[in-house]
Structure formats: C-alpha cells, structure tokens
Amino acid sequence: MFMKSFQSLAQQAKQSWSDDAVMVYDAATASYSADINARVRLGLEPTETRTQQND
After folding, report:
1. Distances in Å between the alpha carbon of 1 and those of 4, 5, 49?
2. Chain mean position to CA 10
3. Residue pair 14/25 in contact by the 8 Å Cβ criterion
4. Which residues of the chain, if any, have pLDDT below 70?
5. 17 Cβ contact list (under 8 Å, min separation 6)
6. Please, are residues 22 and 14 in contact by the beta-carbon 8 Å criterion?
7. For 37, what's the count of Cα atoms within 13 Å in the CB-facing half-sphere?
8. SS3 55
9. What is the pTM of this model?
C-alpha cells in the first residue's frame, strides 16, 4: 500500500490556500515552534544547573 508523507499532503493542501490562510499558518507555526523551544530549554535548565554544581 502506497502512503504519502504528512509533509507531502500538507504541501498539496497549502496550494489551494489563500494568501491570508498561509500567513495565519506561518504565524501559528512560528509561535508553536517558539513555544516548544522555550519548553525544551526550560526542561533542560535543572539538569544543566545540577551538572554545573557538580563540577
């Protein structure tokens, strides 16, 4: 069975979007990515602090 990747399906769907829809999608994606990165950094802080204290 042939399956398309999500990326392929998303690119195909985006071709029919209006310029406004693309702008909203891009803004939401950037916001989501920034939030995830901030959460990852926050999650690493305790480990990094313990590592520094043990040096």
Report:
1. 10, 13, 49
2. 14
3. yes
4. 1
5. 25
6. yes
7. 6
8. coil
9. 0.63
